[in-house]
Design brief:
Blueprint (H helix, E strand, L loop, with lengths): L1 E8 L5 E8 L3 E6 L5 H8 L4 E4 L6 H9 L8 E4 H7 L6 H8 L10 H14 L2 H31 L1
Helix pairs in contact: 4-6, 5-6
Length: 158
């Protein structure tokens, strides 16, 4: 069983949102201060692998640093970025989604915007900024499944 994971961070490197999806459990999003190693492991319990995009270089090391939790001690890591590279699909998540024709409601929002949305929420209590951040993270997480399916389709054509 797979779990799909994506994090958002603040300007100072704290994890602000952990989005996780498992088909058997749906989507959950942990928001600071509710981000703990216990909460992450609790949702992932029963999964065999964690699927990310650039997670081996970003998400997983940040989780290890901030939560003292090395997910690779518990789960197989599948980083779709490297699978995309094998299919000559280069760039960040949004660029690959665009190449593959994957829809995103928040197509004009990027990772820097996500950091700014958190800052607005944390500094001014801007609930609308938090809502947009959570929607952005949700699209990041759920689109991992779609990218994975697109790559399987490409492999089947080869």
């Amino acid at each position: 069983m797979k779990a799909y994971l994506d994090i958002e961070t603040s300007f100072d490197g704290r994890i602000t949102v952990v989005g996780m999806y498992r088909p058997s459990k749906n989507l959950t999003q942990l928001v600071l201060p509710s981000i703990t190693s216990e909460a992450i492991l609790g949702f992932l319990d029963g999964a065999e692998s964690v699927v990310t995009y650039n997670g081996s270089r970003f998400d997983l090391p940040v989780i290890e640093k901030c939560c003292d939790l090395n997910l690779m001690d518990y789960f197989k890591s599948i980083d779709l970025m490297y699978d995309c590279w094998r299919h000559d699909l280069y760039g960040g998540l949004k660029k690959v989604e665009k190449i593959l024709g994957i829809h995103r409601d928040l197509s004009d929002v990027d990772g820097w915007d996500a950091v700014r949305f958190w800052s607005r929420y944390e500094t001014y209590g801007d609930e609308e900024a938090l809502e947009v951040l959570l929607k952005y993270n949700k699209e990041d997480v759920l689109n991992l499944c779609i990218i994975e399916e697109c790559l399987k389709t490409r492999e089947n054509r080869s």
